[in-house]
## 1
Amino acid sequence: MLESNSRFITRKILRLVLRTIPVLFMLMGLGIASGAANPFVFPTVTPDPNPVIVHGTGGELFTFLKTAATTNGSYSLGDAVFTTGPLPHIHHREDEWFYVVSGQVDIEMGDDVYPDITQVPGINLPKETMHRIIAGPGTLVWAPRYHLHAFQSADGNLAEMYVVMAPGGLDQFFANTEGKSPEEQSRIALDYGFNLSIYPSQYVAGIDDNFMMDDNHASELLALLAATPVAEPPSWSLLCVSILGLAGMFRFMKFAAVRPQWKEKRFKLDPL
């Protein structure tokens, strides 16, 4: 009797385990797919010795840790602190990554593609609806070229965000447009290969919360940051070694030039 009861209990436990395993796998799959528990970790980047500090077109303060001049043109990396951000715009040369360091950031982007810089929504094309995401610390968003996008603080408090622009060079645009009017900034933007609106609704029909991002291209960003050679200033120790080496070489050359004459004098015999 006890043996039969034991077998019955064992069978019940086994059935319960077999029913639970698929549920566990499903939950694990949801956790892996969501990626919510695994925020992106931005790699350590050594800043340039003299970072460029400028204001962006929306009042954001950029500290450019890397510029095109120090990355062989591969990218620019700006550390942006802001409440307000740039007006909606479309890059035709650069892809961008936005990595939220602190605060809550309202990032907006459209689905349509605008490969021709002369064809602009709200100017000679219909305005576009943009999609919003409220991104917190650790969030990485990819903003590909040809897409309308913008960003700002989501709650009015200061936010900090790394902005990677590839290829680099837009740091020069900010330096050339700091303090200028929206109309002037929009005109100069064309020289740098992008459309910049003059007021918030110029290109935009509306904004919804249906932001979808299948791929933030994190692997491409990591490869870009890892593969770019960094120009390091010459160290004092290397400079001293070089000077000593040159001094030694000149000494040797001088000795080599004098030695034949010394040997000739030493072994010269007086005439009989």
Note: Helices lie at 2-34, 170-177, 182-191, 218-227, 236-267.
## 2
Amino acid sequence: MRQVVEGEAEPEVQERQVLEALVPLLRPAVDEDDEDGAEDVDEEVEAELDQKMEGFMEAIPAKIDLREHPLPQEAKKGKRQHNAPAYDLRSHCYRAFGVDLTQVPGFDGPTIQVMLAEVGPELTKFPSGSAFANWLMLSPNNVITGGKILSSKTRKGKSRAALALRQAAQTVERSENSIGQFFRRMRGRLGRAEAITAVAHKLARIFFALVRKGEEYDESKLILADERQRERQEAKLRRKARELGFQLVALEPAKA
């Protein structure tokens, strides 16, 4: 593995080798159904793992020069998480992806590192965000008979990437940003378990779009996209109502 860290392999081969070597070193992910959480790791063992992981992270080809494009100021402030490594993981992930994904609500360094190790920094094998979310098994598996959807349960999957996105989704449940508001809307309609899946799906599509386009996260664009989707849904309902001989009328907001 020394060849990987010292960069003697071809760039494409080197990147693949580094990511394959990184996966076994990742801190155990905790399933949302696992109440006990991950087992504690001995501090000496953890320090040794961090040293190895930092070496692998440094070996991943950079998409961006930190001297020309310094890491943006951290938008989210909070206490250090128990699974956060001792090294500057945020900077390494920024180098590898070319965008600061920690700006996305719910995303932190360990989450992004899992995504990097599991799917790589390019995502070129996926034609769209929908295809990426479907590959992660975060899309409804619709059972359709006679043009009617009889079931739309999400397929079961245990990939680290999907689990990381589900965990990220849970962290925004009480957030005041647009993704947090989306979580609460879905929770009211579908229940908490399905809301987690819906938000994880949304985060997967955001992740895909930012990485493929090389763009930083912009909350205003997400709000605009949600408004346009609502307008399309409303237009569809109005059209369907007219076909059935009805007129769609908006409800007056409830008085305080």
Note: The first strand starts at residue 143 and ends at 145.
## 3
Amino acid sequence: MKQKNIFSMETQNYIIKNIRKFFQNAVNDEDFSTFCQDNFYEFYNNFTAGQTLNQRISDLIDFCMKRNKMQDLVHFMKEANGVKFTDFLPYLEAQSDKNELNVTGNDKLVIHETPQNEAKKNNVITTNGSGNIIIQDLSKGNDINISISK
């Protein structure tokens, strides 16, 4: 059985291979240092002499995984180099087995449009009157139900 190269969080699966490829192709050692200093100073502050760029990339991914900062990492990647960012999509694995997300209490739901989903005309967002938001992807016939519970 082949092991998948993803990191799972409660609602998202990140494709580590693509994140690594982005950094290997989008930045040099100096750019990577600046990226880390600007966005992950705690990580940057622990750089050691003699580390290769690939070691630092792997260490940054580990750092973000352990601290649940993968969403931040992907966001900052797009900010740093939007052109290269689109070259290595997707960064998130599609989740066909999960189609419901419960948002409770003070949780915040943020929906980001990504370049891989530019065909907005194929998506329909509706509510069913009982607090559920339904996003229909007409191009693939998939529905995503979002329930807001109190």
Note: Strands lie at 6-8, 13-15, 100-103, 123-127, 132-137, 142-148.
## 4
Amino acid sequence: MATTYSRGGFLGLDNIGVFDRSSTLPTGGNLEQSDGTAWMAFFASVMLQIAVELAMEDDAHYEAMALKYFEHFLWIASAMDNPSHTGIKLWDHYDGIYYDVLRFPDGNGVPLKVRSLVGLLPLAATTVLPANLRERLPRFFDEAQWFLERHPHTAAVLTVPLNVGAGGSRILSLVNPDKLRRILGYMLDETEFLSPYGIRSLSRYHADHPYVFSAGGQEYAVRYVPGDSDTGMFGGNSNWRGPIWMPMQLMLIRALVNQYAHLGNDFTVECPVGSGRQLNLLEVSEELARRLSRLFIRDKSGHRPSHGRHGRWNDEHWRDHVLFYEYFHADTGAGVGASHQTGWTGVIAFLIQGFKAVDAEKVLEKGMGAVTEVSADVARETDKPEAVEVAEEIQEQVAEKLVEQVLETVQQQVSQAIKDQGGPATNLQEKIQEIVMEKVADAVQKKAEEVQQADHRTEEKKEIL
């Protein structure tokens, strides 16, 4: 059976685990990581989606690659949960969430029962495939069906693309509807993962119930820390034991939107848990996007939560200078870490734009692709910055002035031509065309020389580099 192991290997999420995952385990053995395994499943699913799209351009080579990544996905899924195998697995059937498993040198294992993004990340391995998959790629479909029939235990715990969903699309996902509902029972609970500002990286449950593991006479504890890290692990300047990290929010929202494309409006969950309010998965995604936007939107007092307690940012001259922090305090929304992490925190713009006017029918057809299209349309319609408008206005004024000068020159030369003829010229039209063409030719020649000079300067720079 294929699986993903770590003998101390950095897979991101820094200090989220019980142990420093960049170091040797104090117990020996291996750490079977739910997040590391889920990342590989996500990779396989995205490569499958790319291969399918290319194969639909009538390239048989990519159809074979699509089948390869489909099989890889299933083997990875089998490593995470296969009812035909006994022993400790990454999916905990009793708790209804994924955990890391510490595998000792003798082969025995124990789940590390920390409720964190490690247990939510398998949701991300959810990819939408086209409804006409069977008609367009019959070989892929038939061989995928044969493979699933040969491995029924694996197929039973997944969502596989054999059946068309509510909106006509197909999806491939590590989780089936039962697993999805159980995981969301944690994720949408405000006493667990759901914060006023998004999804916490560690459940708030661990504030009062820290997870403690003893090994070699030493205790290793994981407790809820919503802001700055309280340990020196990874330099102490990064914390995944509570705060909200924007890129992970996008991964989870993408998963929910893609699940909605398959399950449709009939699949609803309570959000927040205990509220009595039932939402479909698109509505849950919109709710998460709204909570994330609260980080940057002014409240009734004019304060932006992401600015924290910094008095300067409440000043009227500074309050609209929004900073894109690395991560955010899970309870207050205050920005933590690097303050110019636009590379991933800037994704909030995509989420705000994407859910501004999303069409549920298109989401049922395309999944997250529909949200991406809306975001792109809104971005194109957004008012241009003042500097761009001023530049365009100046450009128009310069163009108008240039036209006036050309016309004035042409009029002068035409008048001179009429004067030279001693009266109305019989070939006046030809003369006007000749003058205009000369002016156009001069302008084109001048522009060509400018371009050549620019190319020459570029080549000089290349030689220097």
Note: The first strand starts at residue 5 and ends at 6.
